[in-house]
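Final report, results section. Input specification for complex C-07:
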Amino acid sequence: EDKVVQSPLSLVVHEGDTVTLNCSYEVTNFRSLLWYKQEKKAPTFLFMLTSSGIEKKSGRLSSILDKKELFSILNITATQTGDSAVYLCAVYSGNTPLVFGKGTRLSVIA
Amino acid sequence: KAGVTQTPRYLIKTRGQQVTLSCSPISGHRSVSWYQQTPGQGLQFLFEYFSETQRNKGNFPGRFSGRQFSNSRSEMNVSTLELGDSALYLCASSHGGSLVNTGELFFGEGSRLTVL
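Structure output:
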């Protein structure tokens, strides 16, 4: 059974801190790993990773995948209160649906 | 283009009742997936429909059912509601074709169901 484990489940940081969120997975026929941000209701897409070692970057957010060790990290530098959200990691293996981890709840305090 | 639209956004039911939730995908998307989100369990997959056929099904009891229409709109139904069915029900759409399906889903705002 495909499995995604995120850590930590929650964390609280101060504005300006850098955070690293972790996602490990066990999946057959891996095709992609995706990160989503969920602030209130609808998760919104952040990154999709398919190849090891290639960093995806968007502003202060970046992510990288290690297909040998079966994990990905999401980094957020210079955090702001607007980064407070649940960050979801999901893996896709082709004909099966996305499998999500339970998410990491990030709280950024001023 | 318009995003994924879910209705109703909020609803309150009592145990034993049944509920129907609706989802209109992004224009051109043929796959619709449904997820249940609860604080303790995260997003759990319910089912996926593609071209009016159920393509995948999660581990939920038979009280949970769904369907997809020819215009790709989808409905899900929960019968004989239980307190534990209280959750945010998220619908997501994608292109769905095997050659273009990279797994990225586009989510609606969700339907918040409270069962009393």
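The radius of gyration of chain A is 13 Å. Chain A has a mean pLDDT of 93. This concludes the modelling results for the funded period.
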